[in-house]
Amino acid sequence: MRALLYRGTGQDTDHPDWGQDVSHQSLTKDSASCLEPANAKLNLGLKVLSRRQDGFHDLLGVFQTVSLGDTVRVTLEAEITLDCSDPALPAGPQNLAWRAADLYRSQTGTSGCHIELTKRIPAGAGLGGGSADAAAVLRGLDRLSDRPLGLSRLVELGAHLGSDVPFAVGGGTSLVEGRGERLLPLTWATPPGWWCVLVCPPEPVPTAWAYAELARRRPHGVLSNPSSYATLIGSARGGCLHADRLWPVLENDFQPLVEDTKPIVARASQLLADTDPLAQSMSGSGSTVYGIYDDRNAARRAETILRGTEYPVFLCTPVPGLIDAVGQGEADNE
Fold this sequence. Notes:
Elements: E1 4-7, E2 21-23, E3 33-51, E4 57-77, E5 81-84, H1 96-108, E6 112-118, H2 129-144, H3 151-158, H4 165-170, E7 173-178, E8 182-185, E9 187-188, E10 195-199, H5 207-217, H6 228-235, E11 240-241, H7 243-246, H8 255-261, H9 263-273, E12 279-282, E13 289-293, H10 296-306, E14 313-316, E15 322-324
Parallel strand pairs: 5-6, 9-11
Antiparallel strand pairs: 1-2, 1-15, 3-4, 4-6, 4-7, 7-8, 10-13, 10-14, 12-13
């Protein structure tokens, strides 16, 4: 059986810990139940390049998991059922976590499960909470299986659920292309000693609306213009990302249009700018905006100031992704 490991703790410590392997098995598990983390995703820049023939859009950007997260308990049962701590979210097939369990069952012939979602990631905020929950269900079911599929196959299954799910299966830091399914794991040139403060205006931004509005404003097919950010990310295809080069060129194609049409997001962005972050941007199609700080005390001060506003605020650290403990040349349970 493949063992899944986390690299580093991702906790809010004096310095983000990227050095020690912490076994995924340290999370609660018995023969029929396990507890999985579901970490939020931050877009460290996002370019929307063009609309594809299949209706999706080609993207270019960097995804990073951060320490804000939901928790997902998966317990093997005869049927698929789901309980969620947020009563506003659906508890049936409309929930992506439920559909992840159904997809895993259809692919493996295994039984159903009971899913308990404890939500902390705001919904509709551009942080990939639903995708993280779905990925956690896939990983949890695979941990409980006698014949686990392995991370690579889970990534493939995730692509059937949503554009962000393949990344959420393994997390970490990745260059993202295509509609989100083409992932290139990246390493930071130096261990990322930075913190981020998330400001989450309580006004969800529907992803479909954001894409439609971007297309309306750029009607000639190409939705994104060449930029220093795109050039830098292109150079990262070698597998290495330099934070000191990334922060000055950070941009998100959705941010201008969202701030134009959602004054609450524009105000949150201005409040964040007033804390003098090293860099700032928006995650996904919004509504979360965030600041990057290279000093823990500066991040703490910004968090304290912003908690005096009407918006939910979270202080986070970057979280490395899952690694496969089995050598690349070995087959998956064949």
